[in-house]
Amino acid sequence: MPLAVAPKKRVAIDVNGETVVFICRTPSAGEMSAFLNSRFITKRNKVESRAYEAREAFMDKVAIDIENATYAGADGVEKPLDASTVLSSDEKTYLAGILGKPVDSWKDVIPMQWKSSAAQRFEDSATAPEEEDGTKN
Fold first, then answer.
1. From residue 121, how far is each of 6, 10, 59, 74, 129 by CA, in Å?
2. Pairing state of beta strands 46-49 and 8-15?
3. CA–CA separation, 28 vs 47, rounded Å?
4. pLDDT by residue (tens digit) across 90-111?
5. What is the pTM of this model?
6. Which residues, in sequence order, are bridge partners of residue 22?
7. CA-CA distances (angstroms) from residue 110 to 25, 42, 51?
8. CA torsion angle for 18, 24, 27, 32 (degrees, to 10)?
9. How far, in Å, CA of 55 to CA of 27, rounded?
């Protein structure tokens, strides 16, 4: 039976045949509304898509952890990527050079495509994320 209210949502996405799971806090109605409204802006009767930027910002706001993800550090060693990941200043500089944007935390290392895929699960037209117990909401 679907669970109407839960403090956390588990959002699974497929990445190269493997499953990466975002653990997210449940967004408020206001946050959902702001997110949905920020996907498109109108300028002089033209609609401009800001979907990727909106999805990335939304996931940066609601994601509290990630499972089954790794990153290659400055030393070339593959390391787990999750909320407990602490990046050294060398790793931040190295990763910023690869990603082409500042890297301050573990969330900055998650590819935008992954964040976009996870955020789509929250959008009105998408399938609802799974709850902590694995059931659909």
1. 16, 10, 11, 33, 6
2. unpaired
3. 26
4. 999 999 999 999 999 999 999 9
5. 0.85
6. 11, 66
7. 17, 29, 17
8. -20
9. 13
- Three-state DSSP class for residue 38: helix
Give pLDDT tens digits for 19-59.
999 999 999 999 999 999 999 999 888 999 999 999 999 99
Task: Pull the structure tokens for residue 67.
Answer: 């499972």
DSSP letters for 11-29: EEEEETTEEEEEEEEPPPH
Instruction: Report d(CA 10, CA 113) in Å as an integer.
Output: 17
Q: What type of residue is 29?
A: A
Contact at 8 Å (CB) between 54 and 38?
Answer: yes
- Rounded to whole angstroms, the Cα distance separating 123 from 27 reads 12
Q: For residue 42, list its beta bridge partners.
A: 47
Parallel, antiparallel or unpaired: strands 18-25 and 40-43: unpaired
Give the Cα separation of 96 and 127 in Å (integer).
33
